[in-house]
Amino acid sequence: MNEYDVVVVGGGAAGLSAALVLTRARRRVAVIDAGRPRNAPAAHMHGYLSRDGMPPADFLAAGRAEIKGYGGELLDGTVTAITPRSAGFRVGLASGGVIGTRRVLVATGLRDEIPAIPGLADRWGRDVLHCPYCHGFEVRDRPLGVLGGSPETVRHALLIRQWSADVTFFAHTHELSNDDRQRLKARDIRVVEGVVTRLIIEGDRLAGIELDRASVVAPYALFVRPRLVPTDALLTGLGAVLTDERTGRTTVPGVWAAGNAVDPRAQVITAAGAGSAAAIDINADLVEEDVRDALPFSAAQERQVAALVNRLPL
């Protein structure tokens, strides 16, 4: 069984940033990634200083190359279980393999749960968008739509108004209150009533939105507020709960968490920073353990060891 100082579960921005810091600290590190990045449908990522507009796949490839350059190991696979042992953890893989490690960082991200409207998933990350900070500038001053469904979607529409003066709110399943209507009207956001039944696609573009009562010409892009579902089964399986947002420490000693798995609203640059901070804290914790292991036994410890060896009463 291979042994590591740290196993990083998840090879996104948080996991790769942590691995970079730890490999540069001369720790033996393995990054295990299932190969399903959340932002894969997007053509470009934004808001990351010096990497603005970079394709997500290129960003990950560059990060992986840097980690390999410092001796880190990148393993393709899915972690199915993390089990405590006397000196660290056993990390079980879907392939049946098992890896030993002193510390674990869980950076498994999240998934976007979107409404089951025909055509919506096919356009996700293209002209069906979720984050105005990620995509708003690229569709600025265009006719934009916002899919309703909850009170949060009204706030989403008011936010997106910052990028365009031509915004339409498709109420969908959300029953607007008088206050909602006044706030939308105050910002010149049109309201279209009716349940959205499907998106009309023509020539690989969003061409229309069909409702249960009519069809309307589509906006240039449709913003949808997804339900953010953390991929945190490994953490819950351990009973691990985040206790320190600054360092990523959890209630389980030896287990850290970073990125969207514990902070659903973290963008790429934020997740990368969280991974870096967790890595520094993990290395400090390993240093403390290395010091304890290097200290000479006290007289009491020596007597305990002798008693165990000789099976004598203490």
Automatic annotation (TrEMBL):
Transmembrane segments annotated in the record for this chain: none
Protein keywords: Flavoprotein, Oxidoreductase
Pfam families: Pyr_redox_2
GO molecular function, one term: thioredoxin-disulfide reductase (NADPH) activity
Domain of life: Bacteria
Catalytic reactions on record: [thioredoxin]-dithiol + NADP(+) = [thioredoxin]-disulfide + NADPH + H(+)
InterPro entries named among the record's database cross-references: FAD/NAD-bd_sf (IPR036188), FAD/NAD-binding_dom (IPR023753), Ferredoxin-NADP_redctase_2 (IPR050097)
Protein name per its UniProtKB record: Thioredoxin reductase
